[in-house]
Amino acid sequence: MSDALTLRRPLDGLRESATRLRERARTFMRAHPREAIGAGVLAFVTAVAIGSLTVINPATTAPAHAAPPAPPPLILQQVAPQQALKVNSEIPLASGPNPAASPFEFKGSATSRTQALNCLASAVYYEAGNQDTDGERAVAQVVLNRVRHPAFPNSVCGVVYQGSTRATGCQFTFTCDGSLAREPDADGWRRAWKVAEDALSGSVYAPVGWATHYHADYVLPTWASSMAKNAIVGAHLFYRWPGSWGQPAAFSDAYAGHEPSAAALRTAALATPHVSPSTQQGQVAEAIKDIPGAQQLKLTPSMRGDKRVAVRFNLIAREASKDVAPVDYDKKFDVSDNLKYALSSEPVAENQQPLGRSSAPASSGGGAAAAGSPQH
Fold it and tell me: CB 3.0–4.6 Å: which of 141, 193, 258, 369 could bond 121 by disulfide?
């Protein structure tokens, strides 16, 4: 009983307070009707505003959970290089800030670092080896920007060789246009390796910011007008995604910490039959018209959509090759006696001198040095 009385008394107090408030409200409305209506309207508007904020707020965070955009393939518009240069020059640089990327933090084993260096140096060498150091550093920065963006693989080799084992769709053209079959020169490779080494150690090339795409200024990709152009370095134009996917906050992916085999990726890329781009209509037909047995393939719509072509050689080509009379190399060209001897299967002639030595007797003035001078 005492507990019931204890609970009832506070409730009675609340009821009395509520009654007094209602009476005061009625008295206020009778004395000040306009002010009462205004206060009610203000309370209603405030409630609606608070409710709208509650509804809008989840929508503003939705892009963080949305799927990242798919990297566009390098599909080139069919325009001449001069026209591409003109169009590219007319695309303005994006307005607003272009913040520098943050230093890349490599966290992996020594073996993984070697693989990453190999892949990054390959991209630097084959994509920008004919440019100065700034041009090479810009390419390395794009690769490392991609590693940290959710739209791309989160390893260096994964980014560089993305799409290289598909007939179409490689992200870096050197992995599918046969460039890998060309061995790099020693000086150029050392320079590219140094740029890659610096980039993996935290060096940042600030002018390209958080760019994830680039192309040469003499070609015109179909995606160029839909991207934010944020830098020009040498012969390359650099772009980032417009909107939130091109902002620094989007580059939130952590580095994988390990790398696939660079040699295996290179071998797989070289072994994949890629189709070659055609820059002008009818160019392929003109190029193969005099080659016996060469036929232009009809591609499926998915492959034909990027304006690429493929050529095959039928049995006519094999038969035509039988009718071609081969000409010996040493008869076709005016070569030295030494080379003729080296290429032939004939026995050594009695008067055949050792390779690299003159058959003429050495003069008394030349001594041994004259006798040993090579022929040209």
Answer: 193
Burial code of 67-79, b = ≥16 C-beta within 10 A, e = fewer?
eeeebebbebeeb
CB atoms within 10 A of CB 115: 22
Q: pLDDT class for 77, splitting at 50, 70, 90?
A: confident
Task: Check: CB of residue 75 under 8 Å from CB of residue 306.
Answer: yes
Q: Which sequence spans correspond to the domains of the chain?
A: 2-57, 81-274, 275-345
List the CATH code of the domain at 81-274. Answer: 1.10.10.2520
DSSP designation for 232: E
Phi/psi of residue 240, each to 5°? -130, 165
Strand order in the sheet with 236-240: 213-216, 236-240, 228-233
Residue type, 38: G
DSSP state of 239: E
Separation between Cα atoms, residue 290 and residue 294, nearest integer Å: 8
Q: Which two tokens stand for residue 57?
A: 């707020």
Q: Are 125 and 184 in contact (CB under 8 A)?
A: yes
- Note the maximum CA span of the chain: 141
Q: Across 63-67, 221-225, 270-274, which has the greatest mean pLDDT?
A: 221-225
pTM over 0.70: no
C-alpha angle 121-125-130 in degrees, rounded to nearest 5: 155
Tokens of residue 37, six digits? 């209506």
Q: Which residues contact 24 (CB under 8 A, 6 or more apart)?
A: none
CA 72 to chain centre: 10
Locate 45 and state its tokens: 């508007």
Q: Which of 267, 272, 231 is CA-nearest to residue 157? A: 267
Closest alpha carbon to 150 in 236, 61, 256: 256
According to DSSP, the residues that pair with 276 across neighbouring strands are 309
Q: Determine the Cα–Cα distance for residues 177 and 165; give it in Å rounded to an integer.
A: 12
pLDDT tens digits, residue range 322-369? 666 666 655 655 656 555 555 555 555 555 555 554 545 544 444 433
**SS3 for 236?**
strand
Sign of CA dihedral 297, 300, 302, 304: positive
